[in-house]
Design brief:
single chain, mainly alpha, two-stranded antiparallel ribbon, 39% helix, binds zinc ion
């Protein structure tokens, strides 16, 4: 278990996997239901409208989109320019990659998962220094 900084509330927590603390995870699950229901009734709403109407913050909506749990169905079918394929930068409306790149990655994913060990201990750029310091 690693102590890392939560992606959303910035508190350090012991992570088994992922970068979101259990408290935020719970909030995100509730937010997800709100946003999902809103999008269900308002298919072409932009992220600004969604954030305003559901009172869910944009980073959370974006997170849910990237996780593929939400799909923004904008009129032009590109997700309203919010998300882009991480490989070819094509506009997408859910997840991290476009269908083309997903297909390509699927064929190589076996290798990268088994041959990829993360031995990072220092963390990359992110620092939790000072956040838990209490001086009496
Ligand atoms: Zn958190
Ligand atoms: Zn792509």
């Amino acid at each position: 278990m690693n102590i890392i900084q939560c992606q959303f509330c910035k508190k350090p927590f012991g992570s088994i996997r992922g970068r979101i603390c259990p408290a935020c995870m719970e909030d995100i699950d509730k937010d997800f239901i709100k946003v999902r229901d809103y999008i269900y009734d308002n298919k072409h709403a932009s992220i600004d409208v969604i954030a305003e109407e559901t009172e869910v913050s944009k980073p959370i909506i974006l997170y849910l989109l990237k996780e593929g749990r939400l799909i923004i169905d904008s009129p032009d079918g590109t997700g309203g320019g919010l998300l882009f394929c991480e490989v070819c930068k094509a506009p997408i409306n859910t997840g991290r990659m476009c269908k083309d790149c997903m297909g390509k990655v699927a064929s190589t994913i076996d290798k990268s998962v088994s041959g990829h060990k993360r031995a990072e201990t220092k963390g990359s750029g992110m620092s939790i220094k000072g956040s838990a310091k209490i001086n009496n």
